[in-house]
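Data card: per-record layout.
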Amino acid sequence: MMRHLVVLLLLLPWTSAGATAQTPSSTIPPGPTVSVYGGQYHLATCPRLAGHTPQTMPLADALRAGAGPCEVCRPNVVDQAIGAFAAEYVVAIAREKGGQAEPPPEIEPPLTFREQAGLIMVRVRRGAEASFEQGLGDLKVALANVPSRRSQAQGWMAYRAVEPMAGDTLYMFLFDPAVPGADYNLINVLNEGLRQNEAVLALQRFTGSLASSMNLLNLQLVQQMDLAAPTLPPSTTTLPPVAQRSIGIPTLGEATPRIRSKCAADWPDDFRMRAYCQEQQTTALQKLQTRSMTTTDQLIIRRKCLTDWPDDFKMEDYCEEQQLKALASIR
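The structure for this 331-residue chain is written out next.
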C-alpha cells in the first residue's frame, strides 16, 4: 500500500505521445537539462539509466514530450531547480500546444484503508511548506467538489509538527474514521474534483515540496482512555506469517538462475558488465540474507522493498538501507 502512495505522488497523471517542438513565439524558458528515457525524465545519476543511453534535453522539451518525473531518482524532489520549473510551467506548456484536446486523466488503482483509522506521514523540504499547504488547499477543494467524497473529507485532517525533523518539516494526515472501501488515491481525488490542468498543477505542488516518500499506516484501536468508554479486550491481531528464514529472501541456489537471467537481459552483448552485474546482485543478496528484520516496522520495510524491486536484489538492498535510515530519523 505504501508503494502505491509512493507511486501516486511521484508520477504526473497525464501522458502525451510524441514531442512538440518549441515554437519561436514561446515565452517559456528551456529550463534545467534532464535525461529522458522510458517516457520519464531523470537525474543523470539515476540507477534506471544504467545500461541505457538517455536523451539529454531541456526540461521544457521533456514536458512537451509528455515525460513525467522518475519515481526512483525523484528529480522534482532532489533537484530544487527542476522541481520549481516543473511546478511553474507544466500547465503553461500544456496550454502552449495550441488548443489540442487534453487526454482524459488516467485512473489509478484505488487506495483504501483496511482498518477503521489511518495515518500518513511525510517530510516536506524546509522552505517548501507554503507550496505543500497550497496543494492541501487544492485537495480540499477537490473533495468538496465531489458529493460522494465529502464523507472522506469529514474524517481527513492534516497536521504540521512544530518541531523540525532532520532539517525538514513533518506533516501528518490523520483519517479518523477512514471510510470503508473509499478511494484515497490522491491522483484520482484531484482528477475527479478539479479540471485537469488544475490537478496537474496541484500534484506538482506536492511533488516539488517533498523531502521523502510518504509512509502510510493502518491504525487499529487498542484502547480508549476515557473512563466512560468500555474496556476493549486484548487485540488478537497478528502480523502475516513470517518464514523461519528472512522473509521473501531466497537462498543463493534459488536466486542464481534469476540473477543470471536478469543480468543477461540487462547486458546481452557485454559479458564484462554481465559478470559485474552478477557479482553485485550476489553481494546484495548476501546482505539481505544477513540483515536482521524482525520488528513490525522492519517487516513492513522488507515487504515494501521486495514488492518494489522483486527482480533486483541490489535495488532491494538499497531500498532497505534508505528506509531503515528514515525509520531511525523519525524515532
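Known properties of this structure: The radius of gyration is 22 Å. DSSP finds twelve helices and eight strands in the chain.

See the next section for split statistics.
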